[in-house]
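User: Predict the full complex structure for these chains.
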Amino acid sequence: MSAAISERVPVSAPLIRCQGVSLGYPGGPEILRGVDLDVRAGDFLAILGPNGCGKTTLLRAILGLLPPRAGMITWFGGTRGVEYSTALAVRPGYVPQRHALSDLFPFSTFEVVLMGRFGRLGPFARPDDEDREKALASLRDVGLEEKADASFRDLSGGQKQRALLARALCSDPHLLVLDEPTNDLDLSGESSVMGLVSEMRRAGRCSVVFVSHLMHVVASYAERVAVVRDGGLEIGSVDAMFTEERLRALYGADITVLELPDGRRLVAPSRPAAAGGVAPIGEAAP
Amino acid sequence: MIVSLFFPFEHFGAAHLATVLIGLVCAYLGTFLVMRRTVFVGITIGELAALGIAVAFRSFTLVSDETPVGHLWHEHGAVLGALLFGILGVALFGHGSRGSVRMSPDARLGVGYAAAAGFALVLVSGTAQGLEELKNVLAGSVLFVSDARLGLIAIVMLVISAVHVSFRKEFLFASYDPDMARTLGVPARFYDAILDLTIGVAIAVAIQSAGLLLVFGFLVLPALAGFHLSGRLGGASAVAVGVALIGSTAGLSMSAAQDWPIGPAVIVGLFVVLMGAVIVSRTEVIARWGRRGVGVAVVLCLPPLAVAFSSVVFETHFFEPERIHAGHEVVVGTGGDAVARSREAPGRMPSLSDYRRILRTSSDPVERAETLALLGRLGNDDAYPDLVAALGDPDESVREAAVDALGELGDPRAVDQLRAVAASTDDETLLLHAALALVHLGEREGAGLLVDLLQESLFPFTRDEALTALVAIAGDANARGFDPDEDADGNRDAIARWRAWWSEAGPDLDGDALARPFEDREE
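Assistant: Here is the predicted structure of the two-chain assembly.
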């Protein structure tokens, strides 16, 4: 078990700071501009927004995979602006969308998780017993120890996501970064994955930033929300951001926000009015 | 014992070793191409390497080989051209390259392949040597691999293997999840580029000997068989190289046995193995033993199978090495690409089909003539129709070589052919060759034709050759006063003496006497 992040990083100290950052892909239009964002130790931050608004673009910049066109991104312990480098001072554990990984690679679950240790090994080094033990421990943490020898591509969607989470944890990260971690998962898979992430963060093992377009996931697990809108960013607590007015403005649709007895918020699109609704099949519209 | 079981190359010669080296490395690299969904990158890079060879051959017409630099360029330009254009192919079409909305990655590959093939053919269309070399690149000429080329193949393949042993986990990580690799500080783009480079260099070096078709087959078929028989990457890679090993050996064997061209023969063998793998992967064998078990069983079985295949089929159908050596001794000192290559690799085993290919496709009469000489020396009766066909060659020197080879071959069927040549030709040089060939076959009438030539020949050289043979047949070291530099009028008395000798000794000439003109050559 790795040391809690609070033992390594001062609580609430910024891990990553974006100041006036503009982002876009080479040869493409500017997607985000003037972004100011702090990711702090102990954070559980969701990046929310409609499809194609630039959530993943921001995530890639946070990971150091996309250099900013303007502005500066500061990683705790080191500063890099437009001079881009992949050598982050803050060690991220990245959980990509599982669909981005090809099923043609016949890796076992254990082999996939072991990749989380490769950053610590030199070019000629092979994983040793300590690395293997670490990978097994990570699989244990996500409840997949018995699937270590199973083929990764044969796992269910939820199991794959947990295995990728184990891989990220295996790198002993300061910051867990997840890209759409619950896409296409059923309720059980969704609860399993986000419950684990939540548990890791609660145990102080790492801070969390995740991207999602699923408002109920964000409302259920995140503490802060960064809403990507019109090329900019609005940041606040879940309570502050999940209001009907803000969400209506964000999605351009009527949205109902209900507060549950335990304090969580339920977000759903409002039901269309009965009059003037879609006519039943075979009947003319009024 | 164990070493010879797994590496039985020394018995099979340079061609087998080259094929196996190329097959093993390409099969391993093919696992990456298949996993990365970049299979057609392989064939496009290969076609670009062929374009590099075409560019080099085109440049040969502009750069003289009489200067030291020009000589070096003529000697190594094709290899360098293939390498440079292969690397260019990697840069243009490698894993890191992206398509666009208007041109998808596979469309880019299609354009690259078509353009490279078109430009290459246009460039070499004016140079016979370049056209021939390009044909070799497409069809392969692994049986004519020289020691120097084999050395280059071995070094390149060993270096590529060493690079992959050193960076295997980085190559896999960068191929599987480059973003994750980069966030962990592993320079995925760098390793991706190195991986692409090894693929490009391997293809560029391999196609010049094995041909584009065979290299592409090695890149795709064994890897797919491996993935069908093993559910793990290590097992799949091991099965792939094992399949390449037996595929190359079986292909060479079948090529020799059935006189098939070697590249397609290996491809057919690999395809059969792949189909077997597909069937096995869908049967209960996999379920019962597990993919890993099947993979291990296949890998363990392959080397002994390869040895068994080779020892049974090779020994039966290939020319015997000693006879190859004998042939080489005879042709040393003459020019010609094929024979020169043979000299550089004594002991290797080209098949009859390869000699036939040269006779059919070579635009160089010297090369055709020397191939005929070699076929005559090798003494394979199966070559008889090819030698007879060469009697109709448009080039005079090739026709003469065919006549000589028929005499050398020793097949009695040649007597009637040679008689027909002697009766129909107006060319006294060809008549001289026909007469000597008949003598070589033990036919006394050949000596009679030589006596006629002493009188009828217009050229001192022909008279000298005829006289030398007759003196040897007579066995008395007596020219009977004949002076080759004088014509028939000046040699009237000497010709009468030779006619008298023919009348007296001709009917009694035996095989020993008729073999004497060729004793020096045999030695």
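Chain B is about 75% helix and 0% strand.
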